[in-house]
User: Fold this.
Amino acid sequence: MSLALPPVAHSPTPIPSWPLKGLALVLAVVLGVHAWLLGGMPLPFHWAADAARQESDTIAMQTRVLPPAKAAPPAVTPTPPAPVSVRSAAEATAENSESFSPQDHVDTAPIAPDFIAEPRPIRIPEPSATASPEPEEEEPSQRYAFPPPVRLNYDVWALTDGNRNTGGAQLSWKHDGDDYQASLIATKWRVNFRQWTSKGALTGVGLAPVRFGDKGRGSEVAAHFVREEGKVVFSANTPDAPLRPGAQDHLSIFMQLASLWAGEPQRYVAGDSISFQSIGPRQSETWTFVISAEEAITVPGGTFPAIKLTREPSGEYSTKAELWLAPKLAYLPAHIRLSESNGNVLDMVWTGSEPP
Assistant:
């Protein structure tokens, strides 16, 4: 038996296997990422969530570029409507909108261009049922100034049925700005032998009598102005008379004339005439006064200028009246003369004044 050992084949030095495995793993990851980038390879869930958050953040930070706005079409100027005598709806809206404050909400809806508002009726309040009716104004531009309350004293000279009499008279005028009362009392030896009374309202067209009374030695005879029926009723059982605008009675006519002149002293000149319906105790007449130039008069109360008015008689039993209106007495008469066709005369001249 041989003691020689068989030859042993020597293998190369072994190379560790773990580095190659790691390199292969890295290479696989790189190839996988490239494959995802190029082909949309799905990622594991937690990678997809991270990617979604990054995509969301990226979209939130993006800046959008908007296309340029389209140019607005040119404004068309509407053709203005033809002028009308009433306000249009647009004008009414414009006037109302001026009263809104800036914070108010205003509806700016356009109005149809052919819309025109119907004119609204304007309601005029009807006069109160309790208000006293006023006569129509015969002179729309005439102004009146009523004399202040006063009592005028007169000396009286009278010729009655051929008998001469002397005495006195008092013309009393009172008012409160709305209603008036007037009286003319003729006395002899301190005894009243004739009395005229008038009462009524003060209006924009002067005095508006409601009752006139005439009392002599017998009972009183009166005329009642029934304005709501447009007539005058006489207590003497004479026929009713139609009531005309501006009608006065035989006493109120003195204060009406004074109010005319005091309201517009320069309105009337010599040669002019003024007409009134004059209501007596039994009948209605038309009294027309002709104006004379201003002249100086002398009466017991003094000498001063006055304006003479003359009313000529209109019939056989009519009375001629002559009045001298004195500016010194607020145009109340300083001299009154009444003449009748039968020869009777009543002449009154002013002596002084006192409170009523």
Q: What stands out?
A: The first helix runs from residue 18 to 39. The longest strand covers residues 284-299. The two ends are 192 Å apart (CA to CA).
